[in-house]
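the two lines:
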Amino acid sequence: AQKITQTQPGMFVQEKEAVTLDCTYDTSDQSYGLFWYKQPSSGEMIFLIYQGSYDEQNATEGRYSLNFQKARKSANLVISASQLGDSAMYFCAMRELGSMDTGRRALTFGSGTRLQVQP
Amino acid sequence: NAGVTQTPKFQVLKTGQSMTLQCAQDMNHEYMSWYRQDPGMGLRLIHYSVGAGITDQGEVPNGYNVSRSTTEDFPLRLLSAAPSQTSVYFCASSHRGGDAGELFFGEGSRLTVL
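prediction for all of em together
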């Protein structure tokens, strides 16, 4: 079963507008971590933001925030005031922390969303 | 700051050839892993290691071999390359696989198997 689902293969946003990238996850663990990574056209993977399952506040990092809705198992990334440099692939990922099985603790990625910021 | 270093960045192989993708990190991370990235499929875990001398299989291990003789190095070997192994490969490391630590990625290695 897919553990991380990103339903938007591609998104467009106007420069300076906000955009939300969707991510839903599936786990039976109570303890887990959610990550977002950015992959620009140059190919490197850039860590953006992290949310722990027990964190009561939504994570924020500059223009990035994570809209964490635990009951709905969603961890959407919100980018405020989009910039042309935000054009990239964005990956949601999860690590399950409730198991001693080190394999389950590996980071599992969604299929990604390609964001294009238009001037 | 070197971080995670992968070599080579590009490689073309013929079917049946073998090769090794090198990965080294200088952050004293216990956890290291290899992913492959294919269009529309995100990153899939090939093999991982939680420390020197300890390796285990991920989601897509067939056709690949790894070893971890030192904390710093985690090479990925393709035993007999197949066109299905054409992909971009990423090595990544973190302090531990069981906590909230982010993964630090290498720049990727693009492999084409003809």
